[in-house]
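One-letter codes give the sequence; backbone shape is given numerically. An example follows:

. . .
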Amino acid sequence: MSDVNKVIITGRVTRDSELRETPGGTSVTDISVVSNRIWTKNGERQEDATFVDVTIWGKQAETLSSMLTKGRHVMIEGRLKLNSWETDEGVKRSKLSVVAESVNLTPSNPNPAGKNQQSESRVAVGAGAQEDTPF
């Protein structure tokens, strides 16, 4: 039996992505995604945020980099990767991240009723909603 290393995460991008190239000319961008878990315990709403670092390579990085802006909702399929290094002081460090295989831009406010989300967005803006979104 073969091992499986597969991750699916949805959440919001926490900062704008920046496209760069490796010395070999391969495009790459890194983002951080926050995924919120909400549940009720003893009648009280509980919330927990998990921050996940994601690396996107190649043509996908080039295509999506300008769209991966702070607050954008995404769904990412990928694999876990453990990065290990040693600091200048000789301390060993490691960090678990996701290497993206597939990135999907998802609607910010999924609409299960099947209504036209774009027209709803226009109505909200036209109604004078001036609040800043936290993301």
Notes: The longest helix spans residues 117-126. The domain at 7-126 is CATH 2.40.50.140 (OB fold (Dihydrolipoamide Acetyltransferase, E2P)).
